[in-house]
Amino acid sequence: MGLLDYFRTSRSNSASIARERLQIVVSHERAERNKPSYLPKMQKELLEVVRKYVNVSKDAISFTMEQDENREILELNIVLPESKGSNG
Amino acid sequence: MARTIVVTSGKGGVGKTTTSASVAMGLAQKGCRTAVIDFDVGLRNLDLIMGCERRVVYDFVNVINGEANLNQALIRDKRCGDLYILPASQTRDKDALTKEGVGQVLEELKKDFEYVVCDSPAGIERGATLAMYFADDAFVVTNPEIASVRDSDRMLGILASKSRRAEQNQDPIKEFLLLSRYSPKRVNMGEMLGVDDVQEILSMDLLGVIPESESVLAASNSGVPVVLNKESDAGQAYVDVVSRYMGEELPHRFINEERKGLFGRLFGG
Fold first, then answer.
1. A-chain residues within 8 Å CB-CB of B145?
2. Three-state SS for B25?
3. The model's pTM
4. What ipTM was predicted for this assembly?
């Protein structure tokens, strides 16, 4: 690498910024698409079971799936309706 | 056994048609009977890149609809007798392609050809998904540029989950990275993602690097696939790509900046 190239390189290194941004977005999108395919169906069925007993709305249930090196975490969050009286 | 190759990328303008034309011509020049199909219904361009736009009579959609048979629609290349082009329809829309129809045409072609190269349109709509659905091998054309790399990764996801091989639990489609419009000089200056960066992000085998080259535009201007220009760097790069695909072990070229003299090295260019 030439003398002037050295200064040029230190001036701007947008390629390394691109690399870092890509690594983050690609790993995120891969995690998203590697989610098991049964997830939506399971979500629907769980919601049906819950609704047998508690009257919750369809968007009151949320699913998140996270993955790190050693384990996968499936988080199920159901927001129960407010108790009687407060919404009347 | 015939092999079906899809040339895909997700993003537009990265060099899919240039690659389809040159890979198909390269395979045919090795003596393999090769057909190349334009899947970009409504926006056909492979005919221009191949230089046979004035010889188009029937097209892919005509064959699918039974309005013409394959032999009527296939255009034999005038430079290489082992190469045939099946143009896309220019007047229909992309929904004219059906999975059954495409499958039947590919089956018929595979009886007669060693390689069937499918030039995918950009995007992830019907033309693109059908171009890759029946593939055995995928050439993923990527530019060293952030949007292209991301879109390529998206295509890898689709290749792995929505192809016939995936649906029928067969061996997965073999994926090959083709890094095009590469400028070693800009990589050295820290302005462009390097070949190692792209390979690491996509975790794919590198089939070849096609350097950014003036000869590509000159080739499309004149309707001659750039692989036929043996003087040009891009042409030689495509010759290497085809040889590597067919099993030859060749060192990668066009990755490093050409060596300059002392003066050039000191003051750059």
1. 18
2. helix
3. 0.84
4. 0.85
